Amino acid sequence: MTSRILVSIRVAAPPQRAFDVFTGEIGAWWINNDEFRFTPRSPGRLAFEPPDANGSGGRLVEHLKSGKVFEIGKLSVWEPAQRIVLSWRQATFGPDHDTEVEIRFEPVGDQTRVTVEHRGWERLPQDHAARHGFPLGLFLTRHGQYWRHLLGRLARQITDCS
């Protein structure tokens, strides 16, 4: 069984615009949270590096103030205006601790439903630093609240930049 977080929001924009702001402006709307840092040196600025013209590569990274770049995850799916799938990790994750994030952009009238599904949390043992000692259910709830907050910021970014 996969432990997952599932959060959705409707934004006042067509799917392509929602996708473009999510990916191209993530450094503007993403806010770091001390509880869910990528590295001990965070916060940095997040950025997507899209796949090349052949559809290969692509990743999500955090640019740290030191000039270093931390790779959060590699893209496995990059379908503009539709869907993104990427691996997701923090610096403290072991080799078998990767989680996966899928972001879907679905038209709903003149709006877009942006859905984030963050799965694979059962791979992290309860005593792992990223879980802060929380039982899995409580951890998923707290992390889901963080994703919900982030999607609210995304919605405001879309509205403010329209």
TL;DR?
By secondary structure, the chain is an alpha+beta fold. It has helices spanning 15-24, 26-29, 136-160; strands at residues 4-11, 45-49, 59-63, 69-79, 83-88, 99-108, 111-119.
Characteristics:
162 residues, alpha+beta, Alpha-D-Glucose-1,6-Bisphosphate, Chain A, domain 4, 24% helix
Per CATH, the class reads Alpha Beta
Our measurement of the CA-to-CA distance between the termini, rounded to an integer number of angstroms, reads 41 Å
How much β-strand is present in the residues?
A: 25-35%
What can be said about the biggest beta sheet? 7 strands, antiparallel
CATH fold type: Alpha-D-Glucose-1,6-Bisphosphate, Chain A, domain 4
Q: Provide the structure class.
A: alpha+beta
> Order of SSEs, N→C?
EHHEEEEEEH
Tally of distinct domains:
1
Radius of gyration: 15 Å
| Share in helix | 10-25%
Mean pLDDT: 89
What would you give as the CATH superfamily? Answer: START domain
Number of strands: 7
Q: Please give the CATH architecture.
A: 2-Layer Sandwich
Unreliable sequence segments: none
